[in-house]
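4.2 Preliminary Data

To establish feasibility before requesting continued support, the project team ran the inverse folding procedure on a target of 310 residues. The structure was first converted into the token representation described in Section 3, and no sequence information of any kind was made available to the design step. The complete token record follows.
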């Protein structure tokens, strides 16, 4: 019996962590491109991408900032490029999907429900910040409501899924989000096979406990049967703990500096590729093979990297 293939996704920069928190966090186009390419070479079949303001590292959903690195990544690697639609919790959905829409992305994230999404506790860990925007942004997240209404989801499904054949990484931060996804599937918004990302350990969502992962998986099995693939995102110190457990349960894994800045407890990672290499080693030691981008495209039913607009 051939070893099972496991897809590694690497989330390169995200919209939570700020430059003060780690010198390794990329925010210029050169840094994002290099770290995405290095992560792909280390074994990530999918690179999940956000953009940043190249001058101060703040969050950007400007398509121009994405286009400063997307073509370079495509030219240097065959990895699946997954463009986030959740880059800002303070802007309407039409602005959040603009980068993926203008790029006619092969794959994009889609958040499957509204939630309180907060990381305000991180502010107290730092006495000084590199840039003026950071502390206020972090502290103000205590009041963030990350809006993803059914109308928003329908708009994303229509304008990305139907018009551009984008495949979604359905990010489910709690059990209720799985039921939201089931409703939307029954309404004809999406087609199987689904790709579900269990997002665990974000304040406002489900905790990063193994028991919760088992429950999420059992619920998804009941709702979607064998018509889905899944992966797990463990935030912070849950990253390397949950990833190999997910593989043992039949899932795929996501790592990257978006989700955790560390390589082990108390030690900052030096790059996204370092995290990819670590999880790859853990998986290969357990007898799994790491899926190539071509294999990931086949497993997830993607349109192909030759059908994007960058």
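Position-by-position output of the design step:
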């Amino acid at each position: 019996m051939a070893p099972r293939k496991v897809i590694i996704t690497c989330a390169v920069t995200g919209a939570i962590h700020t430059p003060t928190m780690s010198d390794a966090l990329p925010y210029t186009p050169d840094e994002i491109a290099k770290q995405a390419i290095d992560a792909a070479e280390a074994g990530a079949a999918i690179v999940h991408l956000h953009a940043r303001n190249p001058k101060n590292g703040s969050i950007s959903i400007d398509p121009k900032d994405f286009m400063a690195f997307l073509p370079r990544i495509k030219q240097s690697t065959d990895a699946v490029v997954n463009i986030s639609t959740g880059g800002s919790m303070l802007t309407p959905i039409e602005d959040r999907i603009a980068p993926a829409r203008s790029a006619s992305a092969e794959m994009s994230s889609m958040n499957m429900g509204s939630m309180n999404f907060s990381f305000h506790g991180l502010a107290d860990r730092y006495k000084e910040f590199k840039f003026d925007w950071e502390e206020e942004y972090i502290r103000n997240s205590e009041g963030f409501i990350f809006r993803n209404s059914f109308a928003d989801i329908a708009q994303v499904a229509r304008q990305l899924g139907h018009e551009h054949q984008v495949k979604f990484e359905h990010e489910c931060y709690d059990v209720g989000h799985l039921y939201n996804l089931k409703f939307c599937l029954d309404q004809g918004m999406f087609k199987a096979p689904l790709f579900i990302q269990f997002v665990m350990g974000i304040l406002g969502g489900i905790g990063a406990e193994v028991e919760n992962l088992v429950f999420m998986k059992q619920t998804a099995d009941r709702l979607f049967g064998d018509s889905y693939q899944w992966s797990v995102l463990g935030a912070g110190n849950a990253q390397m703990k949950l990833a190999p457990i997910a593989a043992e349960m039949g899932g795929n894994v996501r790592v990257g500096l978006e989700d955790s800045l560390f390589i082990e407890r108390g030690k900052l990672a030096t790059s996204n590729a370092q995290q990819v290499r670590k999880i790859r080693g853990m998986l290969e030691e357990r007898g799994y093979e790491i899926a190539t981008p071509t294999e990931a495209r086949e497993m997830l039913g993607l349109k192909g990297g030759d059908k994007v607009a960058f």
